[in-house]
UniProtKB/TrEMBL annotation:
GO molecular function, one term: glycosyltransferase activity
Protein origin, superkingdom: Bacteria
Residues in Phosphoribosyltransferase domain copies: 17-196
Species of the source: Noviherbaspirillum suwonense
SUPFAM superfamilies: PRTase-like
Keywords of the record: Glycosyltransferase, Transferase
Keyword Glycosyltransferase: yes
This protein's record includes keyword Glycosyltransferase: yes
Name of the protein described by the UniProt record: Predicted phosphoribosyltransferase
């Protein structure tokens, strides 16, 4: 893992970050790895990485739980099975158990709709016994990555890898205990938000995700 850097912009765009991650994952080229993206932003990146590694692409569906007074601030995450991860700061951010249950139910419905839209003709690819590489475009609180790794560990992959271009140092420490290997290119001390380290950080829409997964399934 590279040392922390102070540069405000580390990547031109997600494609640039994906190329850098693929280079760091070169040891897995030809190993029939399963590359799982956390939607939506990481899906184009994971597709580039899967192609570079000659691996298989799918998504791992998790969604952050937004704080009561700041929906963009994650206080936890829920996975597709309904398992809820609560961040240590959830209650300090104004949440209580009733709020967390309500927010989890709301985001679980989002995940249900996404699964129907993203892979309508097939079930999720089984990670059991596979080398699984979980990709996101960055870790802020780390909540969604933590939920993804916990959900996948329960499905018994042979090796579980977290791969991100940039992360907050404290969030990185949280995920290191949950994966067999963590690939993080930069952990800047001045981390405020993932997007600050990209020149271009456009929103990825559901239609693009569905198109990429359809292309991957027919490749």
């Amino acid at each position: 893992m590279n040392s922390a850097m102070n540069a405000k912009r580390l990547f031109r765009d997600r494609a640039d970050a994906a190329q850098a991650l693929a280079n760091s994952l070169a040891a897995y080229r030809g190993a029939h790895s399963l590359v799982l993206a956390i939607p939506r932003g990481a899906v184009p990146m994971a597709w580039d990485i899967a192609q570079a590694l000659q691996g298989e692409l799918d998504v791992v569906l998790v969604h952050k739980l937004g704080a009561p007074f700041s929906a963009e601030f994650a206080i936890g995450a829920v996975d597709e099975s309904g398992r809820v991860y609560r961040s240590p700061h959830a209650f300090q951010a104004g949440a209580n158990e009733a709020y967390i249950e309500q927010e989890a139910a709301r985001q679980l419905e989002v995940l249900r709709r996404r699964r129907e839209r993203y892979t309508p003709l097939r079930p999720p690819i089984d990670p059991a016994g596979r080398t699984v590489i979980v990709v996101d475009d960055g870790l802020a609180t780390g909540a969604t990555m933590i939920a993804a790794l916990q959900a996948l560990r329960a499905q018994h992959p042979a090796r579980l890898i977290c791969a991100v271009p940039v992360a907050a140092a404290d969030s990185l420490a949280k995920v290191e205990a949950l994966a067999d290997e963590v690939i993080c290119l930069h952990a800047p001390q001045d981390f405020a938000a993932v997007g600050q380290f990209y020149d271009r950080f456009d929103q990825v829409e559901d239609d693009e995700v569905a198109a990429i997964l359809t292309s991957a399934g027919s490749a």
